[in-house]
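Predict the assembly for these two chains.
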Amino acid sequence: GENVEQHPSTLSVQEGDSAVIKCTYSDSASNYFPWYKQELGKRPQLIIDIRSNVGEKKDQRIAVTLNKTAKHFSLHITETQPEDSAVYFCAASTPDYKLSFGAGTTVTVRA
Amino acid sequence: GAGVSQSPRYKVAKRGQDVALRCDPISGHVSLFWYQQALGQGPEFLTYFQNEAQLDKSGLPSDRFFAERPEGSVSTLKIQRTQKEDSAVYLCASSLSAGSNQPQHFGDGTRLSIL
């Protein structure tokens, strides 16, 4: 099955700086890559996603890049704010619909 | 409703008891998924429904776990003879249509604690 690895496990950044989270996947058939933000005790919230026919997607301060050849994708958050503090999960979906998640990155934005 | 609704939010049970967890997906969503999230980990797939059909149950840890969606809307995840290792957050997600690249929207989950 699909195996998703996520790095780093924790990330501390100064407010206003950028944060980058990287993920790799194993199954070349994976074609959909969402990113979720989860605050303590809350539901995972979809913040951005990318499909395998696209290399990059941006939504305001958030961007995701995908390198199909290398089988890795990354989340970039610019101009970080305290409300960006949360656990972020990457995921990959193969055509059998299952989402395989990374282990998560705890992001702390220091004021 | 506006989002995926799960109940109860918290469930405490003694080892050996049966529990039932409910998921009410976004209205009109065809696909429904159950995931298990252990503390400090990402969600792990349990099972998938397309309307009332359970198309994939490969992630269910044992035959003590059973899920149903009889009318293609509300789903129930049942765990029989609960064990301590069943303690986790159980998340439900739904998506509008079938297909591997459809956004999945999650509920707040049920936090299950087995004593």
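Chain A touches chain B through 28 residues (CB under 8 Å). The longest strand of chain A covers residues 86-93.
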